[in-house]
Amino acid sequence: MRLLFKQRFFSWFDSYDIYDEEGRTVFTVQGRLAWGHCLEIHDGAGGHIGTVKEEVLTFLPRFRLYLGGSYAGEIRKELTLFRPSFRLDLNGWRIQGNFLEWDYEIEDEAGRRVASLSKQLFNWTDTYVIDVEREQDAVYALMVALAIDAAKCSQSN
Questions:
Q1: CA spacing 20 to 30 A to 115: which of 21, 69, 132, 149?
Q2: Beta carbons within 8 Å of 23's beta carbon, 6+ residues apart
Q3: Could you count the other beta carbons within 10 Å of the beta carbon of residue 76?
Q4: Distance (Å, whole) CA 26 – CA 88
C-alpha cells in the first residue's frame, strides 16, 4: 500500500492530507493548539483514529503515539553524530534513516521491512511517500512519519 503524505499549504496549525495511489483522501491530520505538536489523525469519513503528541521539556524530540484513546508506543530522537537516529517503541519495530534525513526504513523484530518513508523534494510543502507492506500497519507507519516530520520541524525552530 502506498500513501502520499502532503502538508496543506495554508494552515494555522499542522494539517495534512494523506492520499492513496488513486488520489483518494484516506486520512486527514489536524494539529491542535497545545504545548508541542499534537496531531490528530482522522479517517476519510472524519472519525478519530489516533493521536501523535509531543512530550515537552525534553532535550531531544519525543512523541507518544495513541491509537484511538489507547497508548500504542513512542518514538524519540537520539543523539548521534552522522546519521539521524530514532528509537521506536512500537510493535517491536526498528527504524533507520539515511544521512540527509529524507529516507527511513521501518523493520520488524525479524528484520523484515514493514514500511519505508521517503521525502519528496521540490514541493511547496512537506511531502512524503509511505510504502507499507501490510495495510493494517498503515496508521502506525503514518504516526511514525508524522512524528519524524514534527521532530524535524521542532529542531529547525
A1: 69
A2: none
A3: 19
A4: 24
> CA 148, 153, 156 angle in degrees (round to 5)?
125
**Which is nearest to 145 in space by CA: 114, 109, 124?**
114
Q: What is the pTM of this model?
A: 0.88
Burial class of residue 59 in the structure, from the number of CB atoms within 10 Å of its CB (0-12 exposed, 13-18 middle, 19+ buried): exposed
pLDDT band at 123 (very low <50, low <70, confident <90, very high): low
d(CA 63, CA 77): 9
pLDDT of 136 higher than 60: yes
**Which residues have a Cβ under 8 Å from the Cβ of 139 and sit 6 or more positions away?**
27, 41, 49, 50, 67
Question: What are the extents of the domains in the chain?
Answer: 2-156
Q: Looking at the domain that runs over 2-156, which CATH code has it been given?
A: 2.40.160.200
DSSP state of 6: E
Residues, the chain, total?
Answer: 157
Pairwise CA distance, residues 73 & 64, whole Å: 6
The per-residue DSSP string of 76-142 comes to EEE--SSS-EEEEESTT-EEEE-TTSSEEEEE-TTS-EEEEEEEPSS-SS-EEEEEESSGGGHHHHH
